[in-house]
Task: inverse folding
């Protein structure tokens, strides 16, 4: 396993552990989130949007079911408000992950990868493939946060990160919110088909990236 995949795997394991802990403790379950949004919906769509934004930003620290939250946001607040809320939440989480990792990420890298030459190769490899990784990061729930953090650690140009992050998350969030807005308890088919479609599309893309790009060796300078 390359140093890059080793570090990304470690970060993914950390995010997964937060989900397992929260799930074990009964925190942030789908039922709880749906209950909060149902109550917020009795007030107004802005309150629903605020909860969606907060939950998606929280995903940076505790893994939450992001797609389900986006679908529910669209269901309760409508496609436009739900989409804006979902995109705002993911944007804040992405920027937060980038900035925090740019500031503190070196400490983690120095512990995981002790060889300076390998650390240099790790950063160079992510900068080489990072944009594509971000674009395909929605293939699994934890990967977006990992790629945001890796972008900060690798010192990817912030404007490059931001464009890639928005390119994938802008359509993703609005499609999810729209699917939620046209779904009902009696007809959840749009939401289900959207979730399946996203999964298949991004997994195919990620598989191609791993097959044709990540296997290419990259020597340290």
Result:
């Amino acid at each position: 396993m390359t140093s890059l995949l080793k570090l990304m795997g470690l970060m993914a394991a950390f995010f997964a552990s937060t989900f397992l802990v929260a799930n074990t403790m009964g925190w942030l379950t789908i039922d709880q989130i749906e209950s909060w949004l149902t109550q917020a919906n009795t007030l107004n769509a802005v309150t629903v949007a605020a909860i969606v934004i907060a939950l998606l930003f929280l995903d940076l620290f505790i893994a939450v079911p992001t797609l389900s939250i986006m679908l529910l946001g669209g269901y309760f607040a409508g496609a436009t408000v739900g989409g804006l809320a979902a995109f705002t939440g993911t944007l804040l989480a992405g920027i937060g992950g980038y900035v925090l990792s740019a500031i503190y990420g070196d400490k983690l890298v120095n512990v995981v990868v002790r060889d300076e030459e390998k650390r240099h190769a790790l950063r160079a490899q992510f900068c080489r493939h990072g944009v594509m990784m971000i674009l395909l990061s929605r293939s699994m729930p934890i990967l977006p946060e990992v790629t945001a953090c890796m972008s900060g650690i690798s010192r990817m140009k912030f404007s490059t990160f931001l464009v890639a992050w928005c390119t994938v998350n802008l359509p993703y969030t609005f499609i999810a919110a729209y699917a939620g807005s046209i779904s009902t308890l009696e007809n959840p088919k749009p939401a289900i088909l959207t979730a399946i479609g996203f999964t298949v599309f991004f997994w195919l893309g990620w598989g191609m990236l791993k097959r044709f790009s990540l296997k290419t060796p990259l020597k340290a300078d």
Remarks:
- The chain has a mean pLDDT of 86.
- The chain has one domain: 3-212.
- Residues 79-112 form the longest helix (34 residues).
